[in-house]
Design goal:
The structure holds 2 protein chains of 2 kinds.
Chain A: H1 3-15, H2 23-36, H3 44-62, H4 69-72, H5 82-91, H6 94-98, E1 106-108, E2 111-115, E3 128-130, E4 167-168, E5 177-182, E6 194-197, H7 207-213, E7 228-232, E8 239-244, E9 249-254, H8 256-264, E10 277-278, H9 285-298, E11 310-311, H10 314-321, E12 328-329, E13 332-338, E14 340-341, E15 344-347, E16 355-361, E17 366-374, E18 376-381, H11 389-397, E19 413-419, E20 423-433, E21 436-451, E22 462-466, H12 469-472, E23 484-485
Chain B: H1 3-11, H2 18-37, H3 40-57, H4 66-84, H5 107-122, H6 125-136, H7 141-148, H8 152-170
The chains are: A alpha+beta, B mainly alpha.
Chain lengths: 507, 179
Amino acid sequence: MDPHIRQLLEEIYQSQPALRQQEPQLAAWLEQFMVARPTVQLTPDFRQQLRQKLLAAARSTSQPPSLSTDSWFMPKWIIPAAATAVIIAVAIPLTNLLMPKAPPTTTGPGVTIATVGADAFGSLASATKQSLSATSPTGGAAERRSATAPVTADDSTGLGTGVGTTIVEPVPPESVKRYEFIYDGPIAIPDLPILMRQATLRAGTVTGLIDDVGLIGSEPFRSYQPQYLTVAQSVADGLTLSIDYVNGSISLYRNQTVALDRGISVGVESPVSLEQVQLASLPPDDELITVANRFLDQYGISRQGFGQPIVNKDFLRYEIMAQTDMVYAPQELTVVYPWQINGQPVYDESGNRYGLVVNVNAVTKTVSGVSNLVTLSFQASDYAREDDSDKIVEVAKHGGLYSYQPEPAEGVETVKIQLGQPASGYMISRYQLDQTSSEFLVPALIFPITSVPSGEQLYQSSIIVPVVKDLLAQGDATIKPMPLPAEGGGSEPSSAGPVNAESDSQP
Amino acid sequence: MDELAIITACQCGQPERFAALYDAYVDRIYAFHYYRLGHQQTAEDLTSTTFLKALESITTFHTGSFSAWLYRIARNTLIDFYRTRRPTLEFNEQFDRPAPHHPDQSVDATLAIERIQRFLRTLTDDHRELVLMRLWDQLPFAEIAAITGRSEASCKMAFSRTMAKLRAALGSIRPVAAG
C-alpha cells in the first residue's frame, strides 16, 4: 500500500477507529481520490518568466524605488484584479526592470542619495538628541511616540518644571511594571550607511511679492530667501499650504473654520458630529486609501518612492487593550505612505512606519490635511556597524535605545514579552550637530512583538534597535520618567536616574 | 535548503534570495490553484499573484512554517479571485466539470472519479477544502490548521468524519490501481 494512503488511514482511525474494519474499501476510495487528482504540469516558459519577474521585483526592492516598482507593489485594493494586472505588468516594465542599473546616487523620483566619506556626520552619540519635530513648525502630525513609555522628561517643556520647582521621580513602586523583551533567535545585522536628510528647499526671490504689497521697495531684498511661506484659499473647503524652506517640508490643511462648519451643517446630507464615530461606520481601508491617492494625484504630489500606504489603526490597540465595551474611532484617520529609502523601510523610534501623512475624514471622505511632505535627498556615510548580536538583543530587551523601563526593584513587576525575528530597516531620529539640527536615518533592526500576555496594556507593535556601534557604545541612553512638581516647590533638581540623552535639549 | 536563513537574508536586504523559495514551492502553489480552478491560464495568474504578494510581504514573516504562510497567501488570493472576478461562481467550481478521462483509464475508474466529484459537491466549502488540502495538496494537518485558522485537532476530526461519510455514501468499490 502507498505510504501516503497508509498514513491517511492511520489518521482516520485515530478519530474513527471503527473504520479500521472497512480498510480495504476505504483504502480503495482514497486511492480513487488520488487518481481523480488532476494532472498538473507547469510549463517551463511560465516557470522561467515568473522567476525572472520575481527577481526583477526583488532587485527593485533592494534598489531605490523606481517608477516600475509600483507595477509590482500594488496597493491591496488593486490586488483582487491582479490576475489581469500581473500580465500587463509583465509586458510593460519587464525589459526595463532587467536592464542593469548604473550605480546610482539617484534612487527614484524625488529620492536622491549622495555618498560622502565615512563618519562624515561626526558622532551621533555625542550629538544632542532632539524630538523628531522639534524644529519644524509644520511637523508634529508626523511624529508618533511610544505608547508603552510613560511621559518622559522630554515632554516636560512648558509644564512648569523650570527653575524653582522641585522635581521628584514619580513611579510608585507598587503600581509599576517593567517589560523585558525577549529574543533568542538568529540575527542578520544589516550593513547600511547612515543617511542624513538634506532639508533645504529650493526657493526663488520674493521681490514680486514685496512689490505687490507696495509699502516698501523690493530691490534691497533681491537676494533674500523666504524661510516660511503660507498661502490659503479663501473659499469654502479651502486649503492652506505651508512651506518650510528651512526644514524642507510642506503641509497642506483644510481651513479649520470651514471644516468645523462643514462638520456641523455644511456639505453633508445630515449634520455630522466632530466627535468620535462608531467603529462599524468607518470606511474600509481601501476606500480611505483611494481618497488619499486621489487627493495626492489632484495636487501633483508624487506617490513614487513610498511603500504601500497604511491606515493607522493605533486607536484600536488602545480601545481593545482597554477592554471597553464600546469601541469608538476618531473621525480623522491617518493614511501613512511609508518611506522606502535605499531599499529599506523607515520607522520612527517607537517602531512605527514613517512617511508622508494624509489625514482623511472618515465621515465626509475628504482629505483634511497632508503633512510630512519633505525633500527626500540624503547624504550617505558609512559608520561602524555593531556586530555584537548579544548587545543588540540586550538593548532590545530594554525596549530599545531610547525607551524607559524601570529598574528591577521590590514591588516592580517584570513582564516578559516575546519578540520575533528582526528585519532590517532605518530608524529616523533628529540630532543637533554643530548647532544644526538634522534628520538621520540610522540602520536598525526591527523586532516584532509576537505576543502580549493577556491583560497587558502594551501598545507597541515592535522594538527598534539601531545597529551603529557609536550609538550602542554610549551606554545607557534610556529616558527617565517625567519629573513631577513636588508640593511646596523647591529648587533641587533630580539627581536620580540615568543620563537622559534628550535632556540636553531641555530649556 | 535552510529556509530560515534565506528568509532572514530576504528580510535584510537580499530579496533576490527569494528565488530559492520560489523554486522550492512554485509547483505546489501552481497545483494548489489548478486543483481548484482547472484552468491553466488562471492558475498561472494566481500563482504569479501569490508569489508577488509573498515577496512583497516577506518582511512580515516572523515565525512558524513558511509553507503554511505561503499557502495562506495562495488561499487568500484564490478567495479574492472568486469574490472579485467570478462572483457568480462557487468556490471549487472545478468539481462541476465532467471527470477527465484518460485513455488508459477503465470505465470503472472513470465512474469512480465522477462519484468522488459528486461527493465533493455535497460537502461544505470548509470540508471540501480540508479534504483537498490533505489528499491532493498532501499538506500535514499542522499546516492545514495554520492555513485555515482552525485547530489541528479540529482539522483531524473533520477530515475523519468526512472520510467516514464518504465510505457510507459511496459504498463499495472495486480497488483500482492508482496512476
